[in-house]
Amino acid sequence: MVFIERRSVLSGMLVQEAMRKRVIRVSRETTLSDCTNRMVKNKVAAVLVTGEDDRPVGVVSKTDLIGAFYADLPIEAAAADIMAAPPLFCFPDDSLESAIDLMHARGVHRLYVSGAETDRVIGTLAYPDIVGLLYRYCRACGKSVSKVRRGTEDETNNLRLRVGDVMTTSVRACKTDEALAEVIEELTSHRCGAVLIRNPADHAAGVISKTDLVIAYKHGEKTGTPAKVIMRHPVLSCEANDFLSVALQQMLLKDVQRLFVYKDAPARIVGVLSLSDSARFRSGSCRACTSGRLMVGG
Length: 298
Known about the structure:
Strand content: 15-25%
Strand order of the largest sheet: 2-3-4
Radius of gyration: 21 Å
Structural class: alpha/beta
Largest sheet: 3 strands, mixed
Number of strands: 14
Distance between the termini: 6 Å
Oligomer: single chain
Low-confidence stretches: 1-6, 291-298
Order of helices and strands: EEHEEHEHEEHHHEHEEHHEHEEHE
């Protein structure tokens, strides 16, 4: 009998290889306005809330801030009013695969890394960190496009993954005239990081992400404000047949969490490629990392 075992680039890699040591902390009394400032300034999706002796007691994420926006909570309310508790932890010597499993199972995009003393936080692990590690791995791989020898380019291109192999095919969208409250409902009910905004002709007109909503909350916008007021454009996109390595490079260089994917023409959006998709795929950017290993059994 022949068994095929899928190999993961992450096999044998530990949390400490991808984690960031810098942790953005706030106190229970920190205002939501200040939490927003720190997230935007430091380009993070959450801040750790600490209590006495700097012990972790909760987390305020962009999702929590959007919930406060939807509930019309004052921007000067305290972090303790909306924080999620307790924080989710992993250890530096945990495997990256187990950390991804935990994030996926609990529906979160980050874990805090605990040291020998379990009430001390020494770092964070998020999907961008994992994808960044995968990207570095691919650049160093012997099958990297930068190391292709003449005469093997066609073979290498056949190995390389395309965006369409990894992307999510469902695209959440709202119209330009729909209220931000409806955008929030679409975003939170489907647990996505951004919503595509379409014009009356049903063409892609812009994007509203969690960051855009958090900034709108900070600036005093109301949930009845039309989506077109805060949407960003043009829509950052790639083609479904593009190489995954090229799309990942674009996201990492532009510091974005996702690209919308089109087929045939930019107006025809057919999917979304996010950093979390790439991390959960547990591969680099070519099939050499996901190829099967033949195992012969009785």
